[in-house]
Amino acid sequence: MEQFFAKVAEINGSINGVVWGIFGLALLIGTGVIVTLSTKVFQVTHLKLWWKNTIGSLFTKNVIKHRKEKGVISPFQALCTALAATVGTGNIAGVAAAIAIGGAGAVFWMWVAAFFGMMTNYAENVLGIYFRRKNSEGEWSGGAMYYLQDGMGSYSYKDKHGEASLKKPGRILAVLFCIFTMLASFGIGSMGQVNKIVANVASAFDIAALSSVQVFEGVSLYNVVIGVVIMILTAIITLGGVKRIANVAEKIVPIMVVLFVAGSLVIIGFNYQAIIPAFIAIFKNAFAPEAFVGGGIGGVIVAMTNGFKRGVFSNEAGLGSSVMVHSNSSIKEPVKQGMWGIFEVFADTMVVCTMTALVVLTSGGLNGGVFNAQTGEIAAGYTDATLVGGAFNEIFSWGNVGEKFVAIAMFLFAFTTVLGWSHYGSKAWEYLFGAKTTIVFRIIHVITIIFGAVLTSSLAWDISDTFNGLMMIPNLIGVLFMIPLVVKITKNYIDRKVKKLNVKPILSYDEKTQAEQEANLSEEE
Length: 525
Hints:
Blueprint: H1 2-19, H2 22-38, H3 42-45, H4 47-52, H5 61-64, H6 75-86, H7 89-102, H8 105-130, E1 133-134, E2 140-141, H9 144-151, E3 156-159, E4 162-165, H10 167-204, H11 208-211, E5 214-216, E6 219-220, H12 221-238, H13 242-270, H14 275-287, H15 296-315, H16 323-326, H17 334-362, E7 371-372, E8 377-378, H18 387-395, H19 401-433, H20 438-454, H21 457-497, H22 511-519
Antiparallel strand pairs: 1-2, 3-4, 5-6, 7-8
Helix pairs in contact: 1-21, 2-8, 2-21, 6-13, 6-17, 6-19, 7-15, 7-17, 8-14, 8-15, 8-17, 8-21, 9-10, 9-21, 10-12, 10-19, 10-20, 10-21, 12-19, 12-20, 13-17, 13-19, 18-19, 19-20
């Protein structure tokens, strides 16, 4: 078994070095920069607009009302399901890992990735709504595979033989995207999440009778039992389809985010004297990394790479993943759903990830606690998986309440991520094999959960990184091709809703769907 895992790690390392090398990072951030500039920095210049249409409209009937149509969910359910998939271990263990490897400066690069990622996610969701269609079961289906097939595929170019179409390359990229999405659902959406659940639950709620029994080296019977329990819970929910997943997500996600942020604020409040030094360390070390990172240009690259990777692992902007649930929204305006995409990245990284980073960096002061920001040393007895729990435990030390709180938060964050990614993978499967066979994928996805319980932490995390990178490449190629369309749809919305011009709305690539959506557009007003 050890030799098998060693071989997997070797192969994964080779692929990871390519997809997360200069090419992958340039593609990721570059796309966000281009969309940001093309839309005239929409996330800043129209801050009031997207804030009003997201958090500002949260309690209106059109946003929270459940829909009777098959496979159609409310905008709030779409947000919660997307956040269920994005707010996961990346927000706790992922941030801790980024700091442990890249220093405090990695947090700055997470913010940079998120700022531009807001517009990448915006573009993805605008395209997702515009190119979605009803499947054979009468449910909405959308995602990168459709804007690669029908968007990029509609382009043509001239070569020496005359005019050539991009229909075939678009279709190939769509298929590759679906394959990578299914693989990612096993990595980021299964193994990586479950691995962190097991590590935290086993540490905070130890049951000696189970943890003392070794199934094989480094894996106890307790790990396996936790994995089996998660499998059963996942099966009960995901086999019921997107509506059941959304119903669970809208109940769990708001509570878990509010409780974690509140708990984090308490920790940060107790260590208030270290808040300003923590921010100084973040900005200073982003460009002048600590000695343990390597210093100089090499150190900046380490901090930048880990910040970008963990940022994407956390908010998923650029992967094209959350599009697949946003496309099930009852919203008819592509730009409106795009604005929910902006808020999704903001809530995930700018709020939750920042809270986690400050908890770690302020714990016991910059030179003490669970992590020393000056030397990059993790306190004895902790790993990146238990770093945040240790920081909470420093304040809530009675009966290890802090560690138990983080273990429960990690369980909820990670478990809901597993649910969200089951939907993403099933949509990729649907594109390849048809809507009637998605139950097969969901069963396979449930089975893979047990592997997350027995893999080593670093390997599960590295595999997730690789699958993310592979999925990101075809998606971002599609987004880059479609930027002029995103700009056109955005301008159309601004002309109608902000400038109050009497122009025809742009809602769908399909004439029939355009007419139907336009006829019912008043429902959103």
